[in-house]
Amino acid sequence: MKKIQAVHNVKTVFPLSPTRYLSGIIHVGNGTHKRSPLFACWRNELTMANYLCKTTWTSRFVANFAIRFAAWVVAASLGLGFFSSTASAQPPQTDAATLQAEIDKLFQEWRELLKIAAQHRIDYLGQDRAESVVNRQKYETAFDNALRKKMEIEVKLIEKLDVVDKPDKTLLRMVKSIAQDLFIQERMERCYHLSKKLLQFTPDDDDILLLWGGSAMVTNRFDDADKFRVELGSLISGLPENIRYLYDSDLNELRNMFAKEQEKRDAEAKANDLPRVLIRTTKGDFVVELYENEAPNTVGNFIFLVETGYYNRELPFHRVISGFVAQGAEDTTGQPHYNIFDEHGSPNDRPHFAYTLAMARTDQANTAAAEFYITFCPLLGLNQRYTTFGRVIEGFDVVDCLNRTAKKNSDGVEEPIKNVVMDKILLAKVLRKRPHEYRPKIFSQSKPLPGLDAKAVPPAQPSDNKTNDK
Length: 470
What we know:
Blueprint: H1 48-52, H2 57-89, H3 94-125, H4 129-163, H5 169-184, H6 188-198, H7 206-218, H8 222-232, H9 241-248, H10 251-271, E1 276-281, E2 284-290, H11 296-307, E3 315-316, E4 319-320, E5 325-328, E6 338-340, E7 356-359, E8 372-375, E9 388-394, H12 396-400, E10 406-408, E11 414-416, E12 424-432, E13 442-445
Helix pairs in contact: 2-3, 3-4, 4-5, 5-6, 5-7, 6-7, 7-8, 8-10
């Protein structure tokens, strides 16, 4: 398996206040608990059960089950009342009234889905193995339906925040809870925009300021991050370790590096001719723009593989780690049976900012082939070591939602997360490219990939690029 190496230990811990469970918005993690959702102890969180019951795992599970069940039922039961009373107390505008009616309807549907999910869970826990498997599938289907409904509610609540002149405390509390969930789930792009919006109404709320400062750093908003550090530096200690690590680094250097990167992005936007590829996953679609100017052979290889259907085989995102990267396209059969030249080590290398697309390889030079990774945050320690060849330009939230498959322990060692359903690449499609043929120049090969003829595979030749990996 090709791996990129972490350059510092990252231990991400997301503290969670017990009052969150009565916020009226269900909490759903980043997918790592797919096989034990809804009422199980969430990974990387300090749940209410941990506050109330610090004995055996079983007792924590039971406590957490009861607390979440009660909280969800209360939230679903009161949700209609919360928003109906808000609508009647303040005659809203037409748009707000329409949204309110939609929210009330969604809450009702959500409450019914919760009842169905709870009943299926009771069924599969209380039956023999054969029946339990069937009911667990029903439960997980019901859970997924409830999750989708919950996300619809979130969207409508945020829309309502946009149309009301003076949002009431209940609406602000609910939207704040959504922002907190986004941060816990590491959906940082959405969290940044939502927390920034909330600060227009509650500029002195430390919780929201913390969300804003943390998500700004992770998503390359270094000017905002610097403002947060200067004005609210005392809050940094409340951020996860990987974000504190970035705040402890040379922020001025980050700002200067990104200013140069932004100049390149502006020039690329003006030229408007870089190749783009849509990648469809089990979480949704995202679009990458490719750095053909700096890494022409890597981009040529990637587009060639896309156009020959290489990625249309449900290849998994097999190595997804919080605060690090989402690595995908692992093929255990050895395809595509060749390796390409590295294209890193020059002054023109594009840095590893958040949402950067780069090639995975072994610890040996010139071993990249088809596996790639996308960074969840700035990882400048990887610069000059791996070939960066693009960036995500659409679908940031899709990338953020990819199921985590491993975590780092206190020593920085990767440990697999059990019972994870890996997300997969379903389709890759070229949206645009420059008017020339895209073929890879390879470093070595074992056997050709169907569709890769001799013309596309010139003999190995020395690379012009230096590498730090000997």
